[in-house]
Write a structure and sequence with these properties.
With 334 residues, this protein is of the alpha/beta class. It has helices at 2-24, 35-61, 90-101, 118-131, 149-160, 169-181, 199-202, 234-238, 252-263, 273-282, 287-297, 302-312, 322-333; strands at 107-111, 137-142, 186-191, 223-229, 243-246. It holds the Pfam family NB-ARC.
C-alpha cells in the first residue's frame, strides 16, 4: 500500500517536528521562546497536513479501517443530582448496596411509582459502588418503553470506551460480551425496564449461575445487574431478579424540606407559607413532582402559587395548564 508507506514517512517527520518544537520554545538558557523557529515549524505542519489529506481519502477508498479506542464516558462519581439522604431513602439505598455485596445475588430490581426517584437512586448506587471500588466497570443505560437495542448498546459502549460503529446489532452484542467477559467485576444498570429485555441480544454475558469458588473458598462477584422499573411483575417474571426492592414515596416533612431547599427557606416567613405547605402535600410524595413544581414557582408571585395549588387540587391531565401540564407529563413518562 503506497499510501500506507507515505503515511508512515509523514508520521516520522511529524515526530521530528515535535522534538524541534521543544527546542524552539527556548532561545537562550531557556529564558524566552524563539519566534522565528516556531513560525518555520508551524509552516511545515501546514504543509504536512495538506499532504496527508489525500492519503486519508485513499485509505478510506481501500477499505482499510483505522480505529482507536474512545475515551470512556464514566458515570459521574459526584453526588447524584436530586438525591437527598432522607430517612425514608437511606434504608432502601443500604439494602441495594448490601445486595451488590452479596455473592448470592446477581440481579437486583428496584421498583416504584413514576416520579418516585428510581433513576436518581440508581445513580447514587453507582456513585457509592464506584467510591467503594466494588466493581471494575460500572455502566448505566436507559431502556424506556420501546427499547432500541442499538442505542442501549451505544450508551454502554461509550462508557466503556468501545467503538462499535459500523457493526451490525449482532456484531455489537458479540464485542460487548467479549469485552465484559474480560472484567472480573461489572455492574450494569438498566434503567426504566417496561418488559422483558433480551440480555443476550443486548450483549450482556449474564449466566444465571454462581461463579466458581476462588482458591480462598470465597465466591467472586462477577456480573451484577441492577434494574429499575415501575412494574414489580417485570422484575421477577421477565428479568429474573433475585432481589426486589420497593421505592416508596417521601414522607410529608421530607417533601416539604425538599420544596424549601429549592425555593428558599424564606418561604416559611412569608404569606405563601400555608399555600406552599399544601402544594408540597399535593405532590403526593413524588420527588420529581416536588422538584418540578418548586423550580417552576421559585421567585413567582402569590397569584402563581395560588393558581398552581388550584390545579393540583384537580389532578387530571386536562385540568393542568402551562408549567404544571409539563410536570404531569414528566411524571407520567418517568
Amino acid at each position: 500500500m503506497n499510501w500506507l508507506t507515505s503515511a508512515e514517512e509523514y508520521i516520522g517527520e511529524m515526530e521530528k517536528l515535535g522534538d524541534d518544537e521543544d527546542k524552539a520554545k527556548k532561545c537562550f538558557a531557556g529564558l524566552c521562546p524563539n519566534p522565528r523557529a516556531r513560525y518555520q515549524i508551524s509552516k511545515k505542519v501546514e504543509e504536512y497536513l495538506e499532504a496527508v489529506a489525500p492519503l486519508l481519502e485513499e485509505a478510506a477508498g481501500s477499505g482499510f479501517l483505522v480505529s482507536y479506542p474512545l475515551p470512556p464516558k464514566e458515570i459521574s462519581i459526584g453526588a447524584a443530582e436530586g438525591f437527598e439522604q432522607f430517612e425514608s431513602r437511606m434504608p432502601i439505598l443500604n439494602r441495594v448496596m448490601e445486595a451488590l455485596r452479596s455473592a448470592s445475588v446477581h440481579k437486583i430490581g428496584i421498583h416504584g411509582l413514576p416520579g418516585v426517584g428510581k433513576t436518581t437512586l440508581a445513580k447514587e448506587v453507582a456513585r457509592q459502588a464506584k467510591e467503594a471500588q466494588l466493581f471494575d466497570e460500572i455502566v448505566m443505560a436507559s431502556v424506556t418503553k420501546n427499547p432500541d437495542l442499538k442505542k442501549i448498546q451505544g450508551e454502554i459502549a461509550d462508557q466503556l470506551g468501545l467503538d462499535l460503529r459500523g457493526e451490525t446489532e449482532l456484531g455489537r452484542a458479540y464485542h460487548l460480551k467479549e469485552y465484559l467477559r474480560k472484567k472480573k467485576k461489572i455492574l450494569v444498570i438498566l434503567d426504566d425496564i417496561w418488559a422483558r429485555l433480551d440480555l443476550d441480544a443486548l450483549g450482556i454475558p449474564f449466566e444465571n449461575k454462581k461463579s466458581e469458588a476462588s482458591s480462598t473458598g470465597e465466591e467472586q462477584m462477577q456480573l451484577k445487574i441492577l434494574f429499575t422499573s415501575r412494574d414489580l411483575d417485570v422484575l421477577p417474571c421477565d428479568m429474573g431478579a433475585d432481589e426486589k426492592i420497593p421505592v416508596g414515596i417521601l414522607e410529608d416533612e421530607e417533601a416539604w424540606t425538599l420544596l424549601k431547599k429549592i425555593v428558599g427557606d424564606e418561604v416559611e416567613n412569608s404569606d405563601l407559607l400555608l399555600t406552599a405547605r399544601e402544594i408540597a402535600e399535593k405532590c403526593a410524595g413524588l420527588p420529581l413532582a416536588v422538584e418540578a413544581v418548586a423550580k417552576a414557582l421559585k421567585g413567582k408571585g402569590a397569584h402563581v402559587w395560588t393558581d398552581a395549588l388550584r390545579q393540583l387540587k384537580r389532578p387530571s391531565k386536562e385540568s393542568f395548564m402551562g408549567t404544571l401540564a409539563i410536570v404531569y407529563s414528566a411524571i407520567e413518562l418517568s
